[in-house]
């Protein structure tokens, strides 16, 4: 490696190192770390990669718009959660969850942390905020109450927020394929045919990790069967949903519901109670009678019904997803690129609609609506900005060195520099390490979708340099994405959120030490599985 190439590599890594330092050394939140990272990467791109200010500006705006499937879902889901909180609906849901499976801890863990956790995050709720108080009320320790919500849904992070990460993956992958003339556009089902293969293995491993957290070997001995059943159920459901393009984004919703149903059947077959109200206080029993559960669940019921109605009929899905893309043209630095917004299909539109429609049944007072908006304005801006800024950083990395006038790369982009170095360094072992790169990306960005936005093109370019075809590109980048999802259990922001929800800030530091070990184990399993797939899967469905 010559000095020029080495210098380009170090400059490419500088913004990432700065973001990492902001998070770990200076303990800054993701939004502040993101804006500093954006400033550094913009300066590096302008001074050392021959990138104009116009490219920086266009890439920043394009990145923010590309983040909408994530950032606007964060915004609308936080609005829905604030509405449910202030109208008392969320309290009623929490009371219900507290009554579930009290006779079997293993089933309770699978049902609540994986079943409800996956379902919640799939429709835009936040398990790390909702579940810790419930687990405390059920008698779990502070340590367990913080750890379980952060790890339970990790295997299905790709399908969180009604499939937002897999949609981001789809757009980036097809953009890369088109840019490099590698072949026809991939479908969501083709991408899903690779992603689903990871799910039963990783889900089962996560189940065993949760049992270890609760009671180590004794808990594993008692709960191995519900754990394995959970992994099998997720594998079967995801196999089915990822065979049909219009069902891919519903994988999280349907897997969560299926796990809950499977655990209910298991309890009935083993003669255990499904619902036990003995742990409820008099106040909770009174509230339960006063506030019907169906009413409390109305926002989620309506959302799921609408999403199913828009996706289950293939003709409706094709119309909204493929035809009514409502593209924005001429905004990106590359004038040929279209940014497909899919406003009428994306979940953020329907989360907002379901929240508004639920008012017919919940009938909030004017005061409750005012309090909802007040809480939302307080909570939403920073996480929404955090989601958007890392997409902007990823877009600048991808478009650095691009000439507006010539409409082509004047010099290699940061992504190309990083990919060349990685292919030279790791060679055939890249498939075994890319999951750890995703874990690192998830740690610094805080989400799988942001990891995909920042690092997906890099991993695809590296895979291409190593001679992999389209199937190899998808497998390698899927491993990167899974690593990013597994970072949830070591994400400082998420663990702090969980601790804050039970007024135990500081306790998350005890969790992160053990969680770090689990994240490495789970990522290692993901990486091994990726290597197996690279050597066995020769083509996409």
Features:
541 residues, mainly alpha, two-stranded antiparallel sheet
TL;DR?
With 541 residues, this protein is mostly helical. The chain has 24 helices and four strands. A hairpin with a 4-residue loop joins strand 3 and strand 4.
- The percent of residues in helical segments reads over 70%
Count the helices. How many?
A: 24
Estimate the strand proportion: under 5%
Structural class: mainly alpha
- The termini sit apart by 39 Å
**General form:** globular
The profile of the biggest β sheet is: 2 strands, antiparallel
- What string gives the helices and strands in order? HHHHHHHHHHHHHHHEEHHHEEHHHHHH
- Strand arrangement within the widest β-sheet reads 1-2
The overall pLDDT, averaged over residues, is: 88
- Total count of strands: 4
Radius of gyration: 23 Å
Low-confidence segments: none
Overall description:
This protein is mainly α and 541 residues long. Helices cover 75% and strands 1% of the residues. The chain has 24 helices and 4 strands. It has helices spanning 3-24, 30-48, 53-66, 68-86, 89-98, 105-122, 127-137, 142-151, 160-179, 188-241, 251-269, 282-290, 293-296, 298-311, 314-323, 347-362, 366-379, 381-399, 414-426, 430-445, 448-465, 470-486, 492-500, 508-536; strands at 328-329, 338-339, 402-403, 408-409. Helix 8 crosses helix 10 (188-241), helix 18 (381-399) runs parallel beside helix 21 and helix 20 (430-445) packs antiparallel against helix 21 (448-465). The longest helix has 54 residues, at 188-241.
